[in-house]
Design a protein that fits this description.
Layout (H helix, E strand, L loop, with lengths): L9 H15 L6 H8 L13 H13 L17 H13 L3 H8 L6 H18 L1 H11 L3 H28 L9 H16 L13 H17 L3
Helix pairs in contact: 1-2, 1-3, 1-7, 3-4, 3-7, 4-8, 5-8, 6-9, 6-10, 7-8, 8-9, 9-10
Length: 230
């Protein structure tokens, strides 16, 4: 395949790969599926990537930051699957939750309603702006052990733990209502936000809902549930 002139950009390949992997998962999807989506032959795709692992790498680079493709030489090669996890780790390192962290360490509170609402908004914004990469990572991590360990066990569960710690602190101080189980309450908050900020887009019956409507209503309802209407 050496010497063949690529007919599509690496960004085109990465975008198509992200869509195919998100829809079909890592194991089921193949290089030929991405080639078909691009209107290329199976062999032509090897002018862009050396392997299926490299194809997932460029898909992840595209969804986390399209500018990451600029420094890649084609055909893209990987030394190991660890590079995929390392790329996901670099992405999560840039996506922090400063309002949740600050609230968890704060002793004096001016308004717990405002504080709690800001945490909900922060989580909503994170999911809303990262819908594409979250869908890709969640789908493929189920089939890649190292990615599963990083995403589901370390990062995602870590967010739930941080949110649980905040809830416990404010429940003990009397600022939030007591709940039967704090980890379940933390998951309830996160999954409610995730459905409206992300998963609702896959529900044709929810197409009429806008992001602004969902964001405002989710904040109102969650705040009311944990603090009351007053």
């Amino acid at each position: 395949m050496a010497g063949r002139t690529p007919t599509r950009s690496l960004a085109d390949v990465a975008d198509a790969a992200a869509r195919v992997f998100t829809q079909r998962g890592y194991r089921e999807a193949g290089i030929s599926d991405v080639a078909k989506a691009l209107g290329l032959s199976h062999g032509a795709l090897y002018t862009y990537v050396q392997s299926k692992e490299a194809l997932l790498y460029v898909a992840l680079a595209w969804t986390t930051g399209p500018e990451l493709l600029d420094g890649l030489r084609t055909p893209v090669r990987l030394s190991s699957e660890d590079e995929i996890v390392a790329l996901a780790r670099r992405w999560t390192d840039t996506e922090q939750f400063p309002r949740l962290t600050a609230a968890s360490g704060r002793r004096r509170i001016e308004s717990v309603r405002a504080e709690f609402g800001e945490i909900v908004d922060e989580l909503y914004s994170f999911i809303e702006r990262n819908r594409g990469v979250l869908a890709l990572v969640a789908q493929c991590a189920r089939e890649l052990p190292e990615m599963f360990q990083f995403w589901f066990v370390q990062r995602r569960r870590g967010i739930f733990d941080d949110l649980s710690g905040y809830l416990r602190k404010r429940i003990r101080s009397g600022h939030l209502r007591a709940v039967p189980d704090v980890p379940t309450a933390a998951r309830f908050i996160a999954e409610t936000v995730a459905w409206f900020a992300w998963h609702r887009l896959g529900d044709p019956d929810s197409a009429m809902l806008t992001d602004d409507q969902c964001r405002t209503t989710v904040r109102h309802l969650l705040t009311s549930a944990f603090l009351g209407e007053s």
